[in-house]
Amino acid sequence: MKYRIITIEREYASGGSEIGARVGLELDVPCYGKEVLERAAERMQTVPERLIHLEESTSNSLLFSLGMANRDGLTEEGELYVVEEQVIQDMALQGPCVIVGRCAGWILREREDVLRVFIHADREFRKKRAMQEYAIEERKVENVLKRFDRRRSNFYSANTCMRWDDNRGYDLVLDSSSLGIMACVDLICKTARGK
Length: 195
Hints:
Blueprint: E1 5-10, H1 16-27, E2 31-32, H2 34-43, H3 48-57, H4 62-68, H5 76-94, E3 97-100, H6 104-107, E4 114-120, H7 123-134, H8 138-160, E5 172-175, H9 176-179, H10 181-193
Parallel strand pairs: 1-3, 1-4, 2-3, 4-5
């Protein structure tokens, strides 16, 4: 396999998590998503829900970050990122895998065997998928999309100093609304295999 590690960042409800899971099955490698957060919670001796709250409160504001810094100079959000970084490095050392979210492509940027993927989709596709897959009420779906995208964007930007949706940070940028979930899976697998 040309790429041993596949990292996937994604817009909310674009199908990125499903695509990651299907790529893992197709390539017969583990797919990690929420497992990163669960392992980080274990290491930080807390519950994943607490870490989700930290991610949601991550801000790109320097003043906010300075105000939240502890005596070691790290914010709680910064500490979370450091722990998640260690978890992701450990996962990558265990062998081929797919890692969804958590800035994994950035964290593993020094490795040449990492395929960095970004999944996006048009708004209507995402709204429909959010209602069907995640049971989001139609009247709330627009706000949910904005909130999750903002959270992911802020977390990525705060920890990488790069824009989350900047195409230059990825090897493949796929539109799941025009290609379809299975075509995205197929393209990622073919690229990973060097075909």
